[in-house]
Design goal:
Elements (H helix, E strand, L loop, with lengths): L3 E4 L3 H12 L7 E4 L3 H11 L2 E3 L1 H6 L3 E4 L6 H8 L11 E4 L6 H4 L9 E5 L9 E7 L5 H11 L3 E5 L5 H9 L1 H18 L4 H21 L4 H8 L5 H11 L2 H22 L2
Parallel strand pairs: 1-2, 1-4, 2-3, 4-5, 5-6, 7-8
Antiparallel strand pairs: 6-7
Bound molecules: NADPH dihydro-nicotinamide-adenine-dinucleotide phosphate and (2S)-3,4-dihydro-2H-pyrrole-2-carboxylic acid.
Length: 271
């Protein structure tokens, strides 16, 4: 079994650990390095995984997953490179850090050491994530396949060229937050119309789950599915008219544009 070291046991690190364990990955093949002692204890208690230093975790791992904030990548990499990285053993670094290009890693690693950049999202926690992979300069097909096989256990996997990863981050990396925001707003609106919060929440959650399942399983596009809900002169048309009048579509264009720009900026500043 592939031994995986997760460096950084924060939100996405936890989602990955939980998703891998849920999908049948063995606890003994996972090790976590987490800077905060309190957080490391929480992770060990919750998942039963070994928590240790960055050096020890990396030493015994086939795949070293960097799940620290972009600004902490440099320091974590310095700790990793204190051990003797073993290209011959096909060790591999997988970076989940938003914005940070593989070209920032490669010069700091032994010559030819493979790096794969990945933009995951938190639904991997429930096996419904999407992980978008881009190989660095030295990552070969077998490295990509290894990462694909690990991450396909926690959701879908897509491969793109690295220059698309900032856009990917704006769409699917940050994407769950947009849906949660819409859910919050719809629940509040339901409460505003007199429903109890429990009833409004149950209705919104199941409407999202059902709509997501339709988008996933139907041959029809999002627009066609929406048209099917929109009876002529009816309630949906009245609601959609208000959403468009308030600029919801333009707001998404601007929001994803801002996320894309921020991803690029984080890559530049993560020195
Ligand atoms: N959250 C998400 O939905 C997604 C996040 N990402 C990317 O994943 C990365 C992590 O994000 P997220 O999980 O949200 O961030 P968090 O801050 O929740 O988690 C990062 C964790 O790493 C710890 N840490 C920092 N430096 C080290 C180190 N040298 N060794 C061990 N642990 C360390 C931090 O400790 P401390 O807080 O004490 O510094 C923190 O607990 C980011 O680069 C982000 O861009 C990508 C896709 C989605
Ligand atoms: O907000 C962030 O920067 C990270 C990257 C994608 C999702 N969360």
């Amino acid at each position: 079994m592939t031994r995986i070291a997760v460096i950084g046991g924060g939100r996405i690190g936890e989602a990955l650990i939980a998703g891998l364990l849920e999908s049948g990955h063995a606890v003994r093949d996972l090790v976590v390095a987490e800077k905060s002692e309190a957080r490391a204890k929480e992770i060990a208690k919750e998942f039963g995984v070994l928590t240790t230093t960055v050096g020890d975790a990396s030493e015994g791992a086939d795949v070293i997953v960097l799940a620290v904030k972009p600004a902490d990548v440099e320091a974590a990499l310095t700790e990793i490179t204190k051990i003797e990285l073993d290209g011959d053993r096909e060790q591999l670094i997988v970076s989940l850090a938003a914005g940070v290009p593989t070209a920032k890693f490669e010069p700091k690693l032994p010559a030819g050491f493979p790096v794969v950049r990945v933009m995951p999202n938190t639904p991997m926690l429930v096996g419904e994530g999407v992980s978008v992979l881009a190989p660095g300069k030295y990552a070969r097909a077998e490295h990509l396949e290894l990462v694909r096989s690990i991450l396909s256990a926690v959701g879908k996997v897509v491969v793109v060229k690295e220059n698309q990863l900032d856009a990917v981050t704006a769409v699917s990396g940050s994407g769950p937050a947009y849906f949660f925001l819409v859910a919050e707003a719809m629940i509040d609106a339901g409460v505003g119309l007199g429903l109890s919060r429990d009833v409004a929440s149950a209705l919104v959650v199941q409407t999202m789950v059902g709509s997501g399942a339709m988008l996933d399983r139907s041959d029809e596009s999002a627009s066609e599915l929406r048209y099917a809900v929109t009876s002529p002169g009816g309630t949906t048309a009245a609601a959609v008219r208000e959403l468009e009048r308030k600029g919801v579509r333009a707001a998404f264009f601007d929001a994803l544009g801002a996320a894309n720009a921020r991803s690029i900026e984080m890559g530049i500043t993560a020195e």
